[in-house]
Write a sequence for this structure.
């Protein structure tokens, strides 16, 4: 079956702009989680959506937001971009919501590399 | 705040050497523990996980990890590495503080010399 897909794969923006990233989960998966990966901070959890509801949230400012659609596809939006937002943004999907993954596996997408100039 | 520490950022081994990557977490409650691997040019993928039961967990490709609750550790091991094990390895923890959150370690880059 098709894996997790993320679009676009690469993006260049300037400070102050906003950006929307998209994630399509594996068919049948209802949970989508977003992570930010940087060389300095590593992989950090942004938020998780399950059945169109945000279930869990990491420690990121309100400029980072997301949503999930009825087909489980998810978008992440970052407003008023800062240089420090340059990162690889990963999305992961699973059947179940966070904390319930003993019989479940989280599958990661290839990521969207965002560069803020 | 909860955190996950991976002791080695870079490890270089020769083929057939044994591997042990350290992982410690700081959280006193119930945790679910994971090791993920990212091979060059590939997506992050799950190696193994621990939720409950036998603290020695076996994963794919001959990897195993041992959960030692008293030491807050979840070290990854492999008796004999291969060149194809060259990758970055991430330890992760799911805690239930203010909702379930996955916390990743900084990662360990393993290079196996042929």
């Amino acid at each position: 079956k098709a894996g997790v897909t993320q679009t676009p794969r690469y993006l260049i923006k300037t400070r102050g702009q906003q950006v929307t990233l998209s994630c399509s989960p594996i068919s049948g998966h209802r949970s989508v989680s977003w992570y930010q990966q940087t060389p300095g901070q590593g992989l950090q959890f942004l938020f998780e959506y399950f059945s169109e509801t945000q279930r869990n949230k990491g420690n990121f400012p309100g400029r980072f937001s997301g949503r999930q659609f009825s087909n489980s596809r998810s978008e992440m939006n970052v407003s008023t971009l800062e240089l420090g937002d340059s990162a690889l943004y990963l999305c992961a999907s699973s059947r179940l919501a966070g904390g319930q993954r003993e019989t479940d596996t989280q599958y990661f997408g290839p990521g969207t590399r965002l560069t803020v100039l | 705040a909860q955190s996950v520490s991976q002791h080695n950022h870079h490890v270089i081994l020769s083929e057939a050497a044994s591997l042990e990557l350290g992982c410690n977490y700081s959280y006193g409650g119930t945790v679910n523990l994971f090791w993920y691997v990212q091979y060059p040019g590939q997506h992050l993928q799950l190696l193994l996980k621990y939720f409950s039961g036998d603290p020695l967990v076996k994963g794919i490709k001959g990897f195993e990890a041992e959960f030692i609750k008293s030491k807050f550790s979840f070290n990854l091991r492999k008796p004999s590495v291969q060149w194809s094990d060259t990758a970055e390895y991430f330890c992760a923890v799911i805690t239930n503080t203010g909702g379930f959150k996955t916390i990743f370690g900084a990662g360990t880059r393993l290079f196996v010399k042929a």
Notes: The mean pLDDT of chain A is 94.
